[in-house]
Recover the amino acids of this structure.
């Protein structure tokens, strides 16, 4: 048996060598299809399927609170509630919290830089099940105030900043003005929370641990054996209900949500990745259809060969096995080439989406990807090889031996299987093209949304003043006032301002508020708003219009009466039948009530797809923040001002680095990056599908014209005009495309519903998109038929008849 299979392989290889054109086209089509699928699977495997590099990752969950009445279905934990959940649950074997942020890192002999850091409870790494590969973990005592000045480094920071020196243990570094001792380095494959490069103990006094109003802790827990995320959520909700009864002012209406840690990391990207995986699967199917059509063409030509082999004693099963061996060999060669394409494609995907693709550093070709590629190659070989093999097995080989396989008709009846395959190819192409069209229309709708500010020619960066050095509000306010004054004096600067958060930066600051002089609302039902502490010039830098009242000025200092500005939506929602100017409002940050002195335009602060929250603005001099984003509007290229601004900041504080340096246009681009990524990939795959469909239509029409040479010659000899021959060819092609379009529209309408969550102001069944795609396919079909049609009308009747 083995010798027989090896013989089939040798014969298949010789057959492909004798037909290099057919072999190259088939292998290229399969390499594209298999390589694209393997590339996407490489990403899906690393991002969605591969377990997190933690101990028993399936038992790790993220715990969050939610305030549905207040519009927060997912929110951070408050310290007091966390302690309740940790100490009174029955389903968790460990529960740690962390809070992220950025810190100023300064070391002797190197420039200061801003890095992402996390403060974690001392049991954090024990809960996750990972320990430092160099040095030690935090001790329980280091979670107490005064003992928390120790740090763990990420492997990347250790290599980049300290050249991988093992002498790092015991060395001190300055973090935001305080000295910390390095006690360990985490392994290279550890990366939670994402992008963190340094971890320090989370230490607070008893009063801060017991407060329940502020929600800023991120919770991660390990389930006990036998517990599930649902049972843990029910357990914690029982604790939340008791806390709501005991503390109605802060806890009424709050409960919890518990999901797996892996889902919390990859949930946002999952729909886009699965959509792309489905699209690339369609591309592989279209490639298979094309190769199947090529094999069908060859099987017609090879019927005489098969007849001779049959007459020499080869049974039908033997002939089918030989043909399947050839198709499997083609698929294997395509897969071998596809592995290289998959490697290059996966790297390209990472480069296209570095900011939002989670676990990008883990993307690699591993055993699972290779197994997937082998499985796809086997399935593909059988899929596209089975139909031609069965057709040969069913053929009358004796007749084929006598006639040599000559045909004399054009149309569906003569080429039924090939026609069905091409119609299916058109249907699949329409599904991909319509999905691509829907995503494109959605993207351009999002891109055309007015964000409420002008992003052009605005440089942005952030500074974070270390509290150890800038003690109290006065030096903080003085630094930002001095920095802004010097920046405004630079040539080319037309406006400059600062705020503790910035639109589309990914940060938010939500506070409840009270309208002074109005009836109090029930505890737990207080309205909330996005809170901005901004400097004078902030609105001018972003060109946010002041609709009524006034802007903040240099007179709105700490000792002046407190003032506030609200957004237009807040004015409409909370002051419908009255003038908000002169009214007073009190934010839930402990400040006294402030008088509303202005109304500004609405800003889409989170993402362009969302309407944006109602917003309240305070002068930063009356509520200073150590961390502030700057916005600097320029008359020319914003990048030209980076160097002089660095010089200004260095003159004010030589140890203070700039962070998040970029442009507001860059923030806007980043907010659109995931949509652009999905749209770009879908457009690429749709373009490949369209090209393959054109090749398929060309192939079947060209083959049909070749088969019908005698028929065309007879028709023309009897007086048929060339227009009649053209109509015959294009009618056949039109029937194929129209049947594919009809089938494709039905499939696309069903598949479009899966895209609904990724669309913005576009219906999944948008008729304009389907009409445009159908028109594109018809135009492509006409182009694909042009050469075979011209060849048909040039048939010489005498030559055609003599050839028979």
């Amino acid at each position: 048996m083995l010798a027989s299979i090896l013989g089939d392989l040798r014969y298949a290889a010789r057959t492909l060598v004798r037909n290099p054109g057919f072999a190259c086209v088939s292998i290229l089509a399969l390499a594209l299809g298999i390589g694209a699928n393997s590339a996407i699977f490489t990403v899906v495997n690393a991002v969605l399927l591969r377990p997190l590099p933690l101990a028993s990752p399936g038992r790790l969950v993220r715990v969050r609170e939610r305030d549905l009445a207040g519009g927060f279905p997912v929110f951070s934990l408050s310290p007091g509630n966390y302690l309740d959940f940790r100490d009174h649950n029955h389903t968790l074997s460990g529960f740690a919290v962390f809070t992220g942020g950025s810190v100023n890192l300064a070391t002797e002999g190197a420039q200061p830089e801003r890095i992402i850091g996390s403060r974690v409870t001392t049991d954090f790494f024990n809960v996750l099940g990972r320990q430092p590969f160099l040095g030690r973990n935090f001790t329980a005592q280091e979670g107490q105030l005064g003992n928390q000045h120790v740090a763990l480094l990420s492997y990347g920071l250790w290599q980049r900043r300290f050249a991988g020196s093992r002498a790092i243990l015991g060395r001190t570094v300055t973090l935001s003005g305080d000295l910390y001792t390095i006690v360990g380095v985490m392994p290279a494959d550890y990366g939670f929370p994402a992008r963190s490069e340094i971890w320090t103990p989370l230490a607070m006094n008893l009063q801060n641990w017991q407060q329940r109003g502020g929600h800023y802790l991120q919770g991660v827990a390990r389930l006990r054996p036998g517990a599930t995320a649902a049972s843990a959520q029910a357990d914690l909700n029982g604790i939340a209900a008791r806390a709501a009864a005991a503390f109605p002012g802060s806890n009424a209406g709050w409960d919890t949500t518990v999901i797996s840690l892996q889902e919390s990391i990859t949930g946002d990207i999952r729909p886009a990745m699965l959509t792309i995986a489905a699209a690339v699967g369609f591309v592989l199917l279209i490639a298979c259809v094309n190769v199947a059509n090529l094999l069908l063409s060859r099987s017609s030509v090879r019927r005489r060969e098969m007849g001779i082999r049959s007459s020499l004693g080869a049974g039908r099963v033997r002939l089918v096995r030989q043909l399947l061996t050839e198709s499997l060999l083609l698929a294997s060669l395509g897969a071998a080439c596809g592995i290289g394409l998959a490697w290059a494609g996966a790297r390209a995907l990472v480069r296209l989406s570095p900011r939002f693709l989670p676990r990008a550093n883990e993307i690699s070709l591993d055993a699972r990807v290779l197994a997937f590629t082998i499985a796809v190659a086997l399935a593909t070989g059988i899929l596209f090889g089975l139909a031609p093999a069965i057709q040969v097995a069913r053929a009358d080989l004796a007749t084929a031996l006598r006639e040599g396989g000559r045909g004399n008709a054009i149309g569906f009846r003569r080429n039924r299987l090939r026609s069905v395959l091409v119609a299916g190819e058109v249907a699949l192409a329409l599904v991909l093209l319509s999905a691509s069209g829907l995503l494109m229309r959605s993207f351009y709708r999002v891109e055309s949304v007015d964000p409420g500010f002008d992003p052009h020619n605005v440089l942005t960066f952030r500074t974070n003043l270390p509290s150890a050095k800038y003690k109290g509000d006065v030096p903080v306010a003085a630094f930002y006032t001095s920095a802004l004054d010097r920046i405004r004096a630079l040539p080319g600067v037309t406006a400059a301002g600062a705020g503790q958060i910035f639109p589309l930066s990914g940060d938010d600051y939500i506070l409840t508020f009270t309208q002074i002089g109005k009836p109090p609302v029930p505890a737990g039902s207080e309205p909330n708003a996005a809170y901005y502490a901004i400097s004078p010039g902030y609105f001018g830098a972003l060109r946010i219009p002041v609709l009524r009242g006034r802007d903040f000025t240099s007179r709105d200092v700490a000792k002046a009466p407190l003032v506030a500005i609200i957004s237009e939506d807040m004015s409409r929602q909370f002051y419908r039948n009255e003038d908000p100017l002169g009214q007073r409002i009190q934010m839930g940050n402990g400040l006294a009530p402030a008088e509303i002195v202005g109304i500004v335009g609405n800003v889409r602060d989170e993402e362009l797809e969302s309407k944006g929250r109602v917003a309240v603005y305070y002068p930063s001099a009356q509520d200073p923040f150590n961390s502030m984003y700057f916005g600097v509007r320029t008359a020319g290229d914003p990048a030209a001002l980076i160097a002089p601004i660095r010089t200004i900041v260095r003159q004010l504080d030589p140890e203070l680095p700039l962070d998040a340096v970029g442009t507001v246009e860059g923030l806007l681009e980043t907010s659109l990056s995931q949509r652009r990524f999905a749209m770009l990939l879908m457009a690429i795959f749709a373009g490949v599908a369209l090209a393959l469909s054109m090749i398929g239509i060309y192939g079947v029409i060209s083959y049909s014209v070749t088969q019908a040479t005698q028929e065309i010659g007879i028709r023309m000899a009897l007086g048929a005009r060339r227009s009649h021959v053209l109509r015959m060819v294009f009618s056949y092609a039109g029937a194929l495309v129209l049947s594919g379009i009809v089938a494709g529209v039905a499939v696309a309408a069903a598949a479009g519903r899966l895209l609904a969550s990724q669309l913005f102001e576009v219906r999944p069944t948008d008729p304009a998109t389907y009409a445009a795609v159908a028109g594109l396919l018809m135009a492509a079909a006409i182009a694909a038929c042009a050469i075979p049609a011209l060849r048909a009308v040039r048939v010489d009747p005498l030559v055609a008849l003599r050839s028979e």
User: Anything to note?
Assistant: The first strand starts at residue 60 and ends at 67. The CA atoms of residues 455 and 664 lie 5 Å apart. The chain has 24 helices and 22 strands.
